[in-house]
């Protein structure tokens, strides 16, 4: 056993005020595959590169065990991975980016401006990316039926990781391997857990925005959304608040619901919406504010959100404008049964399949349900109430599954990045990056170099 527990957990905090945000270090963020008209808020980090960039790295496949915890089950499947050794120097470490809750890409090991690749160049590391089971083309059973999803757990994924590393040690004839895992969001949590569970295999780990503390009723998510908007411009947050107050008043009568149906272009008439239909509608419109605060890059960011919110004719119209600008959908979801049916019929190899897989993991292991149950959130999204029971009901209707919130994991060596968004340290550096983000990258580099040179 090594005496050094080499683990970095990096948390990005959108809210400026540290004291308020400190308790929210585990906030999960980036938006993922869309099954309904709002994104399911899991933790996929999309690395966007030019579409015409030809991959220089070929797909490879590893023969993986279906069930690592049943000795009588000898079934196997092919797990996709990518390997780039162009910067490797003899004796250098092995960097492994862990795939999360989405389809993998060779661009992760080719993007030479990514932080982890810049580090690989500096220390002469080989770069690997291992796609997560039941996402993308890494399909253990060929379907996403309920009876197959029992093999989709973080424990199985961690065992996949350990088995893969041990096999690569033999294939590459590595006599003194030093595997350093990387991950962001859910895969960041996997990176931290891998170092904890398999310390003899994983030499060190970097966990960017890893939600290592799972909670069912994750009210802290919307607390961060509120703090981010309020910290940027209190008038913007107040306008959002007033806009949702107006929505709350309109939903109470038939004429008001007709106004909401036309303004938001809902998929069905809100006059006929029951309780779950209204929750679905609220979920769809609030989700746009979540996603903008969560991603906060490019054109879709908080300054642009507030520009639109405050530039509208009224606070209500501001909410309408933000939702249509952000969602880019023909209609806004308001039919609960349609959502349930779409999740039930999702198939692997599609973004909807990835979304079904992640929803299963959320229902079966983690929760992370972003309800409006927080007292703080009530001040901003007043009336658009989405209780945690709504999400629990979805789990029951889609999977007939129950939730378990008994396991809690702790951070080690946290690095807080004030003023940055989710997994920002993993993205290419820009001159406009806040000082806290630049400092965090330097701190990560310092720790990685200390591990490599130990």
TrEMBL record:
Keywords assigned: Glycoprotein, Hydrolase, Protease, Signal
Alphabetical list of PANTHER family matching this protein: PROTEASE S28 PRO-X CARBOXYPEPTIDASE-RELATED, SERINE PROTEASE 16
Cleaved signal peptide residues: 1-21
Organism encoding this protein: Panagrellus redivivus (Microworm)
Full protein name: Serine protease K12H4.7
Keyword match Cell membrane: no
Alphabetized GO MF terms: dipeptidyl-peptidase activity; serine-type exopeptidase activity
InterPro entries: AB_hydrolase_fold, Peptidase_S28, Ser_carbopepase_S28_SKS
A UniProt-annotated Pfam family: Peptidase_S28
Taxonomic lineage of the native organism: Eukaryota, Metazoa, Ecdysozoa, Nematoda, Chromadorea
Coiled-coil intervals, chain numbering: none
Family under the similarity heading: Belongs to the peptidase S28 family.
Organism domain of life: Eukaryota
GO biological processes: proteolysis
SUPFAM superfamilies given in the database record: alpha/beta-Hydrolases (SSF53474)
